[in-house]
Write a structure and sequence with these properties.
- The protein is of the alpha+beta class and about 325 residues long.
- It has two domains: about 190 residues, Jelly Rolls; about 110 residues, Arc Repressor Mutant, subunit A, CATH 1.10.10.
- The protein has a nine-stranded antiparallel beta sheet with strand order 13-12-9-6-11-4-3-1-14, with helices on both faces.
- The chain is globular and about 65 Å long.
- The two termini are about 25 Å apart.
């Protein structure tokens, strides 16, 4: 969740039809966002600044892969609403009632399986430590990527406060611009958040997922740096320093797809992004595709249409303004 996406004290809600713009607006979101299913993409993001706390509530419609990085000075908690299948985060299949610690500088990959409704609460690490002592008299240690399950009543308490705050921010824009309202919301969120972190039961893990997530991050970075020319999986293995078998196991765990499929998806999505932003009168599909190291154009066209529901040439002919539109509207409840 990136600090350059500033949030005013009152926050606000935005709707998106462009997945790249949605990902860029998530605090910590980067340029890796790949849709995994066909359909019409819609997303909504609500930002609320309450004193020291930042609340982000996001909803999206299609399954996807994405990555995020926490700022070096902030920590927090990530949770989910709804009864649909929850995402895989850093290789852990999340379950109903669980939350994940967001540690300092934590990097992670997320795979969702359809509609996704998430909420993140973040603040400076020193502020969280002081708040824990002030409210409970207990020290709070944050472990990046740790998954906890608080008692049901505590988890329900925290999610209900987040839901109420989201609805208030959507139906009454600017409600949290007043200092008393922002301070009241901060206290209403901090108490259940800290209690969940202190009293939650940690999930037992085998090999530290943080190490595997870091390797996955190096692999993804190597892919992004090499998309302008043909690349073999063995080349990526040498760049990352692991065997092909280990790489495929890691990709299945972290991304839910093979290493080869991950590479193909990134090329397809970046090609689509470039086609949507190109001058349709002076650019050809071949120019764009080969610029991302795609030379088997027939297979590319078939895979592209299978994923996006239209041919590359149809994407190029789209009106750019409609393709990239982002509405700043009050969200529906």
């Amino acid at each position: 969740m990136n600090d350059q996406h500033g949030v005013s004290s009152g926050g606000g809600s935005r709707r998106f039809v462009d997945p790249d713009q949605f990902q860029a607006s998530i605090r910590g979101g980067d340029n890796m966002y790949s849709l995994l299913g066909r359909g019409v993409f819609h997303a909504e993001l609500t930002d609320i600044k309450a004193g020291r706390l930042l609340l982000q509530r996001g909803r999206e419609t299609l399954p996807r892969l994405a990555s995020t990085s926490m700022p070096p000075n902030r920590v927090g908690i990530l949770g989910w609403f709804g009864e649909s299948q929850l995402p895989v985060v850093r290789g852990a299949q999340m379950r109903q009632g669980e939350f994940m610690y967001l540690g300092l500088g934590m990097q992670s990959h997320h795979r969702t399986f359809g509609r996704n409704d998430f909420a993140a609460l973040t603040l400076d690490a020193s502020d969280l430590a002081r708040a824990a002592m002030d409210l409970t008299g207990r020290e709070l240690a944050m472990t990046s990527g740790k998954v906890v399950r608080p008692p049901d009543h505590l988890g329900t308490w925290l999610l209900s406060v987040i839901d109420a705050a989201t609805r208030a921010g959507q139906t009454t824009p600017g409600i949290f611009t007043s200092r008393p309202a922002a301070d009241a919301l901060e206290q209403a969120l901090l108490r259940p958040m800290i209690t969940c972190l202190l009293d939650g039961e940690a999930r037992n893990e085998g090999v530290p997922r943080g190490h595997r997530a870091a390797i996955a991050r190096r692999f993804a970075a190597a892919v992004e740096a090499s998309l302008d020319h043909p690349l073999l999986i063995l080349d990526l293995c040498r760049m990352v320093g692991i065997t092909a078998r280990t790489l495929n196991t890691l990709c299945q765990e972290q991304f839910g797809v093979s290493a080869q499929r991950f590479l193909a998806l990134r090329r397809l999505h970046l090609t689509r992004r470039a086609l949507l932003r190109s001058d349709r009168l002076s650019t050809t599909v071949t120019e764009v595709a080969t610029g991302y190291g795609i030379w088997e154009l027939g297979r590319f066209a078939v895979a592209y249409k299978s994923l996006f529901g239209e041919s590359p040439s149809a994407t190029l002919r789209r009106i750019p303004e409609l393709s990239r539109m982002q509405d700043l509207l009050p969200a529906t409840t």
